[in-house]
Amino acid sequence: MIVGIGVDVVDTARFEATLARTPALRGRLFTEGESTLGTASLAARFAAKEAVAKALGAPPGLRHLDAEVVSGEHGRPELRVTGRAAEVAGALGVARWHVSLTHDGGVAIAYVIAEG
Which cofactors must be present for this protein to function (predicted)? Predict the structure, then answer.
């Protein structure tokens, strides 16, 4: 059963400018493993974090660091949720996450499905 769905779109040039203007933002948005990636990949991961919040119903107290996109088998993106995101997901009965990322033509898009 689908518990929630989230989608988000990020303009990569605007995102890059934001990171350049506020360098400390990188540490507030991304885990150590994510932070070394290029701008387009970071924009897609930021979109995934926003999509996780939407899939959970945007509860208060979520942090961007509570959702991490990691590479699974054969490079497939997978979500790891911790903290408040894991707490809310557990209360909603989320047993599995599905995530799809893409970036092309100056935009990054992420789809997230929370499955119970």
Answer: Mg(2+)
